[in-house]
Task: structure prediction
Amino acid sequence: MMKHFLSVKDAGDVISLVNEARECKADPYVNSELGKNKTMGLIFMNPSLRTRLSTQKAAINLGMDVMVMNFTGEGWALETNEGVVMNGDKAEHIKEAAAVVGEYCDVIGLRSFPSLVDRERDYSENILNAFVRYSDKPVVNMESATRHPLQSLADILTIEEFKTAKRPKVVLTWANHPRALPQSVPNSFAEWINQTDYDFVIANPEGFDLAPEFAGKAKITHRQEEAFEGADFIYAKNWSSYHHYGERYYGKENWMVDQEKMKLTNNARFMHCLPVRRNVIVSDDVIDSEHSIIIQEAGNRLWAAQAVIKEILVSK
Ligand code: AN0
Ligand code: CP
Result:
């Protein structure tokens, strides 16, 4: 039973869902009648390449019709606060907007990034939860203020495909970036990896530890090279600070993943959710090497989305 797909809590057994994604990959059109006369609505409050195309394609493979709407300029500016006098620049309240989308769609995907200004509000997931509450339809999280579960499912599928050890050492490493980014991808990655039996290490600068409820049982180190020793997978990602909420890193250390650091690993595979800044997050020679599995990882987004939408359709 999958009503919504908001976090790992909706996944049931993680490896079973990964296996369902593998079945979709092996036989993509076996359920092409399942979504007949059903409509998937994809709502984007922020830009996207992979999530938009993979989720759309997944719904098409299941026989659904798909409508995509960008609120980045095309929709009315949405008010998300309760009880306000709407005499400013916000034309429509999220209560009506979500309810109206629910009138037209059978399943709703939503992308809505955090403000990175107000931690309590971001971590309350007020926008995602408003869609759950007011649309009255199953909601798929396409990256919210605190999570990106479709990405994490695709990441574990990719690790399962490429691992050579039964219990691989997986390292989530912070890397440099010129802008403040959400914690959603690393939060989710940690939350999902914590549901596996992998050896899991997170490396990040001081002040950049993830929220404890996401880091969970991971080993945390502030020394990147120590983390890389013996690693089977290097998963790079920048995030802004949780503790000094939304702040960027102004330290002097270089956290870019390069060939020298990769030499410390056990011939590790390189992963990143993309989009990635070359020669800031990762050097050209690493991202272009045969150890880089970023394109296969992005490809797996399709099968992750298809497994999730299929589960929602069969649960309705
Ligand atoms: C976004 C983030 O870091 O959350 C989306 C990643 C999938 N990345 C950027 O904004 C560059
Ligand atoms: N990885 C990912 O979610 O990419 P997009 O932001 O392009 O959808």
